[in-house]
Structure formats: C-alpha cells, structure tokens
Design goal:
By secondary structure, the protein is an alpha/beta fold. The chain has 15 helices and 11 strands. The two termini are about 40 Å apart.
Length: about 350
Amino acid sequence: MENIRLNVALLRRRVPNLTSAARSVGLRPATVSNLCTGKIPVGRSEVRTLVALADLAECSLDELIIRGEKIEMIETGIKTLDLFAPLAKGGTIGLVARPGMGQLVLLAEMLHRLKASGYVTVLLKPEGEHPEVNDIMDEIQFVSHTIEEAYEKLAKLGKDKEIAFAADRSHVISGEIQDLQERLQNIGIDSVTTFLVDLKGDVVDEDLPFGPLETLWQFDADLSARHHFPAVNPIYSTSSVLEGAHLDQTHLTIQQRAKKLLRRYRELRSLVSIHGVEKLPSSEIQTYKRGERLEAYLTQPFYVAEAFTGKKGESIQLQDTLNDIRKIMDGVVDSIEVDQLTYIGKLN
C-alpha cells in the first residue's frame, strides 16, 4: 500500500481543541489520537473519519493525507523508546504521566543525549512556580519566559541548527504552542522537535491532552512503583514512525512479538501475584519468565541519574536492542537470572 499518513502538523495548527471538536462530529478522541501517532494506519481508517477530520481542519483530503513522505526517526539509544515508540524528528512528543513517575528524568535524559549529538536545547518556562523544573535546567541552553521570546529564539536558531524544545501543557491549553508552531512553519522552520509535559499530571485523565502528536510516551504507574525506569508503557506508547513504510521490517516484527509477549506477561503477572507462579499452566510458565526477563532488560541506567543511582549511563544502538530482544524471546537467556538483566546496557 502507498505510504500515507495524516498531516498531524496541519491538524495541530488548524484544530487546537481537537478533543472537543472530534466529539462534536461523532469521532472518538482515542481513534483520532491513534490515527495521528500511526497506531491505526490511515489506510485502515473509515472514510467518514477522514472526511470529518478534513472538515474540522477546513482542508481537502489531499491536504490532510500526506503521501510518499517518510518520518525520520531519531535514534535515542534508549531501548524502550527506540523499539516501541521512536522519536519523530521535527515532530511533537507528548509525555503522559502523573508527578513522580519519572517524566522529568526522561526529559532531562533526552535533552542530554540530543545536546550531545549537536541539538540546541530550549525551554519555555512554565507558568507559575515549579521547582521540579530545576531538575532539567543543567540540560537547557536557552530559557524563554514568554511565547514571543521562544519564537524569536527558535526562528533564529532554527535556520541552521536542530532544536530540542520543551514546554509545559499550560502553553498548549492557551493555544500558544499551536500558534508558535504555525508561525515557525510559515517561515520555513521545520528543525524543531518539541517535547510537551504536564507538570500537574492532568493529562493522564484526558483524551488528546496535547492535541495531535507524532509520538506519545505513556508512563506506567506499575512500572514506576516497582522502580522499573524508564517507566514508559511499551504497549500503549506509540509513534507515527512505526507506520509500516517507515521502519525496517525486522524492527516491526520484533516489536510486535515483544508487545504480544509483554501483554500476555502482564496478564499472567496478575495471576502470579495472587496464586504464585507454580499455579500457572506449564505452557504459560515459559511465557511468564521470558516476559519477566524482557521487562527487566528494558530498564536502563541514565547519564543524568548517575550521581543518584551509582550506575554509569548506557546508550544502546537499535540493532543491538533488536538482537538482544530476539534472544530473550527465543529463550537464549532463559538461564540468566532476572536481576542480572535489570539496569544493564546490551547483553554480554
């Protein structure tokens, strides 16, 4: 099938309050979100859904649907992200988490890694008092206090630099982020990769809290409670980079196998917590143990947390991640204890 995807940037600019707008025309916000991130391929969506979105954006279907253009992936060196929800270069990434689930640590790590690879990091200071933002300030090169300051800085830097830009949801609710992105688009600046967080944690309870996104990182309370970081849910996090034509088929195959294993492991874990692993059917014990090992392997030491964890930060090439996960799923490491797979880089 021809490589097609939604013009997410256009939707973001034209329909700021997409949640309410979608409901007003009978669309489920979750469906719209899944179309934007590629979890539901455009080719499998209902025609009436696409027509309704085009009407909301006051554009034609040809404008809404982009054909033949690939979304470039930024390889982060973070196993969970690169496998399950790759970072879309020049896109908008939403971090969905409650306070205390590690979203600012992950954001700081992303800014650290991108800065090391030549990106300029810019923060739009959130409204109100948020002392927790100090946790990411070491990774920020430029701070803007108003949307106009941010525009001037991004417009100037974006002419010859790649930029990692971070902002709080308060600027999304006000419509300022959408206006900013439209103004940058109008002057031909497409080098800004935007990270949106919600310092209040309200996003967890809302549909499309950031509007249309290219990448969604959904944090998981259970992983966070068990200190499995980054606590990004590998099943519900997604990215438009994952559309079939954008990734190597091997990546997609391994990703789908890993999701299936983790989904079943989570179901079995609920049973094990009540009855113990010995009560599982023999056919499911292997699935449970391999899922447990895969979940452990997906934890990772961060550079920005070295002073707190005592563990050296690790960066893993995507190909190594794919090879390691295939080995775990195929049983090559069945004899290795789970704690030996926790907070490591690649398999030895």
